[in-house]
Amino acid sequence: MRIEGQGPVEPGRVYRPEAGEQRSVPARAGQAAAVDEVALSREARFRQELLTRLRSLPEVREELIADIRRRLAAGTYTVSDGELAEAIIREIEGRHSS
Question: From the centroid of its chain, how far is CA 33?
Fold first, then answer.
């Protein structure tokens, strides 16, 4: 088998940065270490806030479940045919999009 390409790789070149690349240099004793900074866009901060709020919500809304159970027991819980059909379609579409 014959492999053709760029030729042999110099081991020292593999670990040297290319021209223009910056290497991190550890701080010496008595010198302050470099600090990395990240600046988030307003949209990114907004999304982060929404995720934080979402994660703080309970996974199961106990009050809603208790209300529906009371209405079922009393026979006053009703769902229209259209609402039922829409819920079934949303469920089916959700299964196929995953």
Answer: 31
